[in-house]
Fold:
Amino acid sequence: MNRYRFVFGIGRSGTTLLGRLMALSSTPMKFVSEPISGLTVPGLSRPFFIDPNNARLIGLVRDALLSLASSNDVIGNAYKKKIERDDKDAAVCLAKDVHSLLSYPRILGTLDFKAVVITREATRILDSYLVPGDLNRDYLESEYHYIGSVASGKSAGTPLLRAALDKLAPALHRYFVRPRPFTRSIFRVAATIELLRNYLKLWADSDERIMHVSYEDLCESPVDIARQLYRFVGLDYTPETLSRISEMTSGSSTEYYGTDKNAKAILNQDYRVLSESKLRTLKEFLRS
Structure:
């Protein structure tokens, strides 16, 4: 088997929903959630940031991903639960990841693959991460510091990252070059999310093997979007597949890996943590 399919996005941008919808395909497959977090690769540190210029480590991770299609040995025992589907005669290896997004273009290289990237409005992602007891305080910290080193000219970065930086609002670009020392982590995370949203869209625009979908469109029309995604990545589906997708996104799913959320209702739900004043501040910050 040499057919690889990937789902990429920032954490809390809908990658779990999208990955599990694609994993409902009638195509026999192996589906692994966030493989970077479980790969047993020497030198792979946590919280799962790989320097895009670390050629040795990128090569090791690529080899591990190649092995993942046919072997579970490259995943540590503590992460075997991340293998959510493992059909005996799998024709496709599907993986979704939110880690090391800046490095994945070089990790994949000339690998035979197709991918879907998903993006979501930055303040919605941030609000989801700020739910009490559910915030990984280290999330995107390494990416933030690396982006700043590229923006200030201390690191070469990659052409794709530099293009994403150029698309930022001028003041936000300057923030990465010279961040205000008193800025709280919420602003560092928000700035990094906005940069990565640009990055993922540019990646999809520059590579015909990659399709971009917005979380908002997916929630509004999950069955229609799923049809488009399946056709693009070459996965099979049946009327039963579409029925299960409809059920999973209506809030009535009883499956163990079902999201059990009403997708359309999510679009209009209130912010759970961010106040109106904080939202105004953040939106001004991201667009200044």
